[in-house]
Amino acid sequence: MKNLSLVLNIILIVAVAYLFIDKFSGSEEAEENTSTEQKDDKIYQNVAIAYVHSDSLLAKYDFMQEIESELGELSQKYEKEYQNRAQGLQNEINDFQRTAQNLTVAQGKALEENLMKKQQNLRVYQEDLSMKLRQKEAELNNELYKTISDYLKEYGDDNNLQLVLTYSRGSDVLYANDGLEITNEVIAGLNKAYNEKETSEVSE
Questions:
Q1: Whole-angstrom Cα distance, residue 59 to residue 40?
Q2: What does the alpha-carbon distance between residue 173 and residue 141 come to, in Å, rounded to a whole number?
Q3: Residue 103, burial from CB neighbour count under 10 angstroms (0-12, 13-18, 19+)
Q4: Number of H helices and number of E strands within the chain?
């Protein structure tokens, strides 16, 4: 999903910033007479960088697949509920059109106004279902954000990393050495934690 892909990119960017700040916030301030160039050189020499392929992470992270499945099922459920109501209203409109000639002007006007009100209510109902779906998606995205950011923080601490970048077609990273890629390790770690959590919840 496009929204989920965007959220993942945001997650990785925030994680990069967090790891970077966490690493260097405790360091002593440079002396006033130290040049900007010297400070930048010192920082650069101590930065450990790695990257992940975001497309692979999205495709192979089990929790992401669960999110897509849950949102897909919820979307189908809401669509079915809306279609049932819409079909019921259409049946009423068809009945009105068949019997309109047998009604008085007052009766016809009253039924027509009632049908128009039901059409408005149907639009409101559709908007309400769409809002519920967006809220659920936002809730799952927040959970995804926390899961990945927490794991990257732990992974970064364990492996002395200050920067974890996302490298994919169209990203700002034009080249990355294969030796810096940690995609499979991150996916394996995320899935292990996710499956252990699922097993624990089932056994409770």
A1: 37
A2: 25
A3: middle
A4: 6, 2
| pTM exceeds 0.85 | no
CA distance 138 to 72: 14
CB atoms within 10 A of CB 22: 13
Q: Which 3 state secondary structure label does DSSP give 66? A: helix
Residues belonging to the chain: 204
Cβ-contact 195, 62 below 8 angstroms: yes
Encoding tokens for residue 182?
């940690």
CB atoms within 10 A of CB 156: 22
What is the C-alpha radius of gyration for the chain, rounded to an integer number of angstroms?
A: 27
Give the up-direction half-sphere exposure of residue 5: CA atoms within 13 A in the CB hemisphere: 12
Give residue-wise pLDDT tens across range 21-41: 454 444 444 444 444 444 445
